[in-house]
Design a protein that fits this description.
The chain has helices at residues 36-44, 94-106, 116-123, 129-140, 144-154, 157-180, 189-221, 235-243, 286-300, 317-324, 363-373, 388-406, 411-429, 435-443; strands at residues 14-17, 24-32, 54-59, 65-74, 85-92, 110-111, 223-229, 261-267, 270-276, 304-310, 332-337, 352-354. The chain is an alpha/beta fold and 449 residues long. Strands 3-4-5-2-1-6 form a 6-stranded mixed β-sheet, covered by helices on one side. The protein has a 6-stranded mixed β-sheet with strand order 8-9-7-10-11-12, with helices on both faces. Strand 1 and strand 2 form a beta hairpin. Helix 4 (129-140) packs antiparallel against helix 5 (144-154) and helix 7 (189-221) packs antiparallel against helix 12. The radius of gyration is 29 Å and the shape is flat. The structure holds guanosine-5'-triphosphate and magnesium ion (MG). Magnesium ion (MG) binds next to helix 8.
């Protein structure tokens, strides 16, 4: 009798509607797993030739025709998941799609969980974890640059960079292990020097990957920009200008804006969320007071604060207090609005960008300044669309490499730091990943992917 523990449990067969809900020209039901060929036979009469579209009637368990469309069969060797996959392309209406899916479930499939197809692709070794994440990032990309970067990660560029770092670490670990076989005083000093040089090269390579990943994380999550300042300085007018449409209410009355209002825009292909907030002042009026509290909460979690004042007036005492109270470390762009009302010479302060929400003057400079203080370098094509998780792992690897540099000569400790750095890199590609982490990553996918 075969040992039950030795062979993994056979996987079941999953099915889901892979196209978005609603009406469309085509809708796709996707089935993956060992039972997929039988399900295709049950619904269409026979299994299509591998990777050839075949026009078929799709029938339910009672033999009633649900729809007519294309059936495709991908054998395990040539499929997304690495298992047998069947795709049924029918008419993209919710009733038809639901009936098709039900027929697949009646024929033995189970409803797929979010991301389960991609999870299987990962488990089958079709993709590593960073590539699997890139699939979701490509689907969710908020700009062309983000999409391009996700596609490069999906094609393995990010994973290759990580693997090349890991490869260097493996060599250095092997060298160190060899030194450990000798008593300390017999280690050839040349080997010790070689180890130090290799470590320096690895650290430099890690920094380069880190810089590209940090850039990419801006592309992925977008830059959160909060417009802040005293009432009536023109924050809402600036939001409207930047968004290119009249989104926020603008009036000459101080205290117009109450709720925080957000608009998604793009600057040079970088997704940016602009948040308009209530003018900051002490108010006894309850609605305004709540608005000001919300403004402060927005400021506290901003990536960039655009602090707006009126041109020509100079900073008021209240504005100085507000500026000093901005959270530590949040990059701030200072803007003097309404320059159309003052003479050109009046805005000599070079730290302050003079703009006019009314005429659009200075807006390009403001856009550039926002990207710059957020840490975006223009023209950076080869960035990695990194996630927070990747940045954390890279930081961990960096900390252990730094520690290794301090342990030069104490080779056992040196080796241990290298091992920890290696493990941190392995978390990125999923070489050493806990089950909960996998669950968390794939649960954020859409169903059918
Ligand atoms: N001349 C001129 N007027 C402007 C400009 N920007 C805004 N204004 C006027 O200034 C007034 C206040 O503008 P808002 O955009 O509502 O100002 P706000 O900062 O959002 O004000 P609160 O919501 O009350 O905090 C309105 O009458 C705008 O038309 C500008 O660049 N030039
Ligand atoms: Mg306003």
């Amino acid at each position: 009798m075969p040992d039950a523990d030795a062979t993994p449990a056979p996987r079941d067969t999953i099915a889901a509607i892979a196209t978005p809900p609603g009406r469309g020209g085509i809708g796709v039901v996707r089935v993956s797993g060992p039972g997929a060929p039988d399900i295709a036979r049950a619904l269409t009469g026979r299994l299509p030739e591998p990777r050839r579209a075949r026009l078929s009637a799709f029938r339910d368990a009672n033999g009633e025709t649900i729809d007519e469309g294309l059936a495709l069969f991908f054998p395990a060797s040539h499929s997304y998941t690495g298992e047998a996959v069947v795709e049924l392309q029918g008419h993209g209406g919710p009733v038809v799609m639901h009936a098709l899916l039900t027929a697949c479930l009646d024929a033995g499939a189970r409803l797929a969980e979010p991301g389960e197809f991609t999870r299987r692709a990962f488990l089958e070794g079709r993709l590593d974890l960073a590539q699997a994440e890139a699939v979701a990032d490509l689907i969710d990309a908020a700009s062309r640059s983000a999409a391009r970067s996700a596609l490069r990660s999906l094609q393995g560029e990010f994973s290759t960079a990580i693997e090349s770092l890991a490869g260097g670490l493996v060599e250095l670990r092997a060298l160190t292990e060899a030194m450990l076989d000798f008593p300390e005083e017999e280690v050839d000093p040349l080997h010790g020097d070689d180890a130090a040089h290799r470590l320096e090269r690895l650290r430099a390579a890690l920094e380069a990957v880190f810089a590209r990943s940090r850039q990419g994380s801006l592309l992925r999550s977008g830059i959160h920009v909060v417009l802040a300042g005293r009432p009536n300085v023109g924050k809402s007018s600036l939001l409207n200008r930047l968004a290119g449409e009249e989104r926020a209410i603008v009036t000459p009355i101080a205290g117009t804006t109450r709720d925080a209002l957000r608009e998604s825009i793009e600057i040079d292909g970088v997704p940016v969320v602009i948040v308009d907030t209530a003018g900051l002042r002490e108010s006894r009026e309850e609605v305004e007071r709540i608005g000001v509290e919300r403004a402060r909460a927005e400021i506290a979690r901003a990536d960039v604060v655009v602090f707006v004042v009126e041109a020509g007036a100079g900073l008021s005492k209240a504005e100085r207090v507000l500026l000093a109270a901005l959270p530590d470390g949040v990059p701030c762009v200072r803007v003097a609005n309404k320059v159309d009302r003052v003479d050109a010479g009046a805005c000599a302060d070079t730290d302050i960008i003079a703009v006019s929400a009314k005429t659009g003057a200075g807006l390009d400079t403001l856009r550039r300044a926002i990207l710059e203080v957020a840490g975006w370098h223009p023209g950076e094509e080869s960035v990695f669309l990194a996630r927070e998780r990747h940045l954390r792992a890279l930081t961990k690897a960096r900390v252990h490499l730094e520690a290794a540099a301090r342990e030069h000569g104490r080779w056992e400790l040196f080796a241990e730091e290298l091992r920890l750095a290696h493990a941190a890199l392995g978390e990125i590609t999923g070489e050493f990943s806990a089950d909960e982490l996998l669950g968390e990553i794939f649960a954020r996918f859409c169903i059918g992917k």
